[in-house]
Design brief:
The chain has about 200 residues and is α/β, with parallel strands linked by helices. Helix content is about 45%, strand content about 10%. The protein is globular, with a radius of gyration of 16 Å. About 5% of the residues have low confidence. The structure holds iron/sulfur cluster.
C-alpha cells in the first residue's frame, strides 16, 4: 500500500475517532483521542507498532509516542534500523486514562472496545506484515493467549502478520527499563533486526 493510500485511510479514521465516546469513564478525563495523522510509510515492509495507551503529553498533542515515551521509541526504532517514517504507529487504547491501570481498563472493557472499534480497523486498512507490540497491554490487544509467548500467540482475526513483542520501558519490572539502555545489543532486538532486514531484502 502506498503512503498516499495509507493517508486516505488514516485521515478519515482519525476524524471519526476524534468523535468517539464509547468509553464514558475515559471521555471525561481525556483531552482528545490519540491518532497518528501523518502516515508516511515506506511500503517495502509494512510494520505496525502498537503501544499501550496515551500519556499526558500524547493526550495534549493528540499524537502517539510524543513526550516521555518518545526517546525509548526512537531508541527502539534505531536499534531495529527503522525510523518513524517506516512504520504505522498507534496505541492499543486511544484515550488517556489517568493513573493508567491496565487491569482496570481490561476489567471495564475499554481495551476490548477500543480494539474492536479502532485498532482492528487500522490493522485491516494497513495490512501489516509485522505487528510490533510494546508493552503487555498492546500484546494482549492483538493476541489470544499471552501466557506462553511466543509459541502460542495467535492473532485475533488475522491470518498471517508476524507478531513481535518487546516490554514497555515504564513497566513494573526495572529490568525492562534497563533493557532500553543497551537496546541495540539486546538479544531479542538483534533477532528482530535480522528478521526485518531479511524481509526488506526479500521485497
Ligand atoms: S478508548 Fe477508544 S473506544 Fe474508548 S472512547 Fe476512546 S477512542 Fe473510543
Amino acid at each position: 500500500m502506498s503512503a498516499e493510500k495509507i493517508a486516505m485511510v488514516s485521515r478519515p479514521l482519525c476524524g471519526d475517532l476524534a468523535k468517539c465516546k464509547r468509553c464514558p469513564a475515559l471521555v471525561q478525563g481525556r483531552t482528545q483521542p490519540v491518532c497518528w495523522r501523518e502516515p508516511n510509510s515506506n511500503p517495502k515492509v509494512r510494520i505496525m507498532v502498537i503501544g499501550e495507551g496515551p500519556g499526558r503529553d500524547e493526550d495534549a498533542e493528540g499524537k502517539p509516542f510524543v513526550g516521555d515515551c518518545s526517546d525509548p521509541l526512537d531508541a527502539l526504532l534505531e536499534a531495529l534500523r527503522l525510523s518513524r517514517e517506516d512504520i504505522y504507529l498507534t496505541n492499543a487504547i486511544k484515550c488517556f486514562a489517568p493513573g493508567w491501570k491496565s487491569h482496570t481498563l481490561e476489567a471495564q472493557g475499554e481495551i476490548e472496545t477500543c480494539r474492536r472499534t479502532w485498532l482492528s480497523q487500522e490493522i485491516i486498512a494497513f495490512t501489516p506484515q509485522i505487528i510490533f507490540t510494546i508493552g503487555k497491554t498492546a500484546l494482549k490487544s492483538v493476541s489470544v493467549d499471552t501466557t506462553d509467548w511466543p509459541r502460542k500467540f495467535v492473532l485475533k482475526n488475522l491470518p498471517w502478520p508476524l507478531l513481535l513483542h518487546f516490554p514497555h520501558p515504564s513497566g513494573r519490572h526495572p529490568k525492562n527499563r534497563k533493557r532500553y539502555q543497551n537496546i541495540a545489543n539486546d538479544p531479542l532486538i538483534v533477532q528482530y533486526r535480522r528478521l526485518i532486514d531479511s524481509l526488506r531484502n526479500l521485497s
